[in-house]
Write a structure and sequence with these properties.
Blueprint (H helix, E strand, L loop, with lengths): L1 E5 L7 H12 L3 E7 L18 E4 L8 E5 L3 H12 L6 E8 L11 H11 L4 E6 L8 H16 L7 E6 L9 E4 L4 E12 L5 E13 L14 H4 L4 E7 L6 H6 L9
Parallel strand pairs: 1-2, 1-5, 2-4, 5-6, 6-7, 8-11
Antiparallel strand pairs: 3-4, 7-11, 9-10
């Protein structure tokens, strides 16, 4: 398959190198276009008010991998690849392997998911891959599963255009309990701004955050109550796969608001 790989951890990240090399060694046609530095938690931002530059990168990846480092956001990278750098569209867009989970409401901020979502917006099925640890450097189990998933999609393409958000436990391959289809959960944070003073005496703030709970979504999704939540299943060493789409319409909301009336007289 022809694959485009991006990320938000940057060109030097071990996760993207492990993923790209694994898939190239398996015989896939792999191109990498990713940020030239870490661009985590950038969401789906695009660069509109300055030029975007992309430089060919050599010596980092498998010799068969074509790679560019871009000074834009993860979404910029995928859009630039599809419209300017690649000769023909890829069969799949992959993003990752991210250093850290992208679970629940975290996907709204995630540059990893946003890069994959940009592929989806352009009509290409996409996969976001995350290792649920900020410290583990063993990306091989995640890359091994990515290869299995890509090979399966080559044989059985997705029935509809969608993004698969995949979170892999940071354990040895033998310790992975299995693979489970999940729905998006909710992760709440205590957002803390650490107030500091720089050497020139000017105040600045550093955003930190702490997860305080994983909770059940409170509205909608009534038909999915029997589908496990992504935030819960990974604790049991299962790989979580959550199908996503870019249409954010709240279907239950349309029904609940259908009796609204507005008087313009």
């Amino acid at each position: 398959m022809k694959l485009l790989i991006s990320n938000d951890d940057g060109i030097s990240a071990l996760g993207i190198r492990t993923l790209a090399n694994c898939l190239a060694e398996a015989g896939h046609d792999v191109s990498v276009v990713c940020p030239d530095r870490e661009r985590s938690a950038t969401g789906h931002g695009l660069t509109l008010h300055q030029p975007i530059r992309a430089e060919i990168v050599e010596g980092i990846f498998h010799p068969a991998v074509k790679a560019w480092a871009c000074d834009g956001t993860p979404s910029d990278c995928v859009k630039l690849a599809l419209w300017a750098l690649l000769d023909t569209p890829p069969d799949l867009v992959l993003s990752g392997i991210n250093q850290g989970a992208n679970l629940g409401t975290e996907i709204l901020y995630s540059g990893t998911v946003s890069a994959a979502m940009e592929g989806l917006i352009e009509g290409i099925p996409s996969i976001a891959l995350s290792l649920i640890s900020h410290t583990s450097k063993d990306f091989q189990p995640a890359a091994k599963f990515a290869k299995i998933l890509v090979d399966q999609l080559a044989q059985r393409p997705l029935p509809d255009l969608m993004l698969l958000n995949v979170n892999i436990p940071a354990v040895r391959w033998e310790e992975i309990a299995g693979v489970t289809l999940t729905r998006q959960g909710v992760r709440r944070y205590i957002d803390v701004f650490d107030k500091r003073v720089d050497p020139r005496g000017k105040t600045y703030y550093w955003l930190t955050g702490e997860v305080i709970e994983d909770v059940e979504p409170s509205t909608g999704l009534n038909l999915l109550q029997n589908v496990p939540l992504d935030v819960h299943i990974v604790r049991k060493n299962y790989i979580s796969i959550t199908p996503l789409q870019y249409n954010l319409t709240y279907a239950d909301g349309l029904d609940k608001l259908s009796d609204w009336e507005f008087n313009f007289s």
